[in-house]
């Protein structure tokens, strides 16, 4: 899988994609993440990529031309499954969308800034708009990092224990059951006996019960059709 990120703040991604699981996935060749500075496609001598909004009003708008040039250049090199614009009014990111996008070969993520992008970008260049939640961030960069992380960890081989991504919260419509590690008794705070019992079937049943119970208490909206 390859992800190309278009942004005016490329440095924001350096440490995120340079560390830990994502870095290992990149060095194992499972994913490629390319972060591009949109200013590279500016034709302005000051490398500007934004301008005042027609009709007046506060804030700047990202121009169509540099974005069009960037996307056209990338598309001339390979086919993209989706060109995604991160925006608070996009489709809300959830596990099903992350699952779906994790099967893509190539994705472009466009990070908006200022007052957003010229509407013609959305009309003509974007195939999908994604929001990471009902709140407004200063730009799309954090949202692009969140979306990339949610997708990349689902790519086969990225997470060491193959079953671990599948047993995540939300994959089965349930939140995760509680987890414990040593010591079994910390100053009187004890690990449930069943987890120390060695009976895998009982442990699995207990975990499922806990997951259902927690989901009912914390996120009842996830139950509903299934269960
Ligand atoms: N850009 C600003 N806020 C955002 C959000 N909540 N989701 C995606 N992109 C955004």
Architecture overview:
The two termini are 33 Å apart. The chain has 227 residues and is of the alpha/beta class. The chain has helices at residues 14-17, 20-27, 64-77, 95-101, 119-124, 141-152, 162-166, 200-218; strands at residues 2-7, 32-37, 50-51, 61-62, 82-92, 106-111, 128-131, 185-186, 189-190. The chain has 2 domains: 2-152, SPOUT methyltransferase, trefoil knot domain (Alpha/beta knot, 3-Layer(aba) Sandwich), CATH 3.40.1280; 167-225, Trp Operon Repressor, Chain A (Orthogonal Bundle). 33% of the residues lie in helices and 18% in strands. The longest helix has 19 residues, at 200-218. The strands form 3 sheets. It has a 5-stranded parallel beta sheet. Strands 3-4 form a two-stranded antiparallel ribbon. α4 (95-101) links the parallel β5 (82-92) and β6. The radius of gyration is 22 Å and the shape is elongated. The chain has 8 helices and 9 strands. The model has no long low-confidence stretch (mean pLDDT 93). The structure holds adenine. Adenine binds at residues 86-88, 112, 131-133, 135-137, 140, 143.
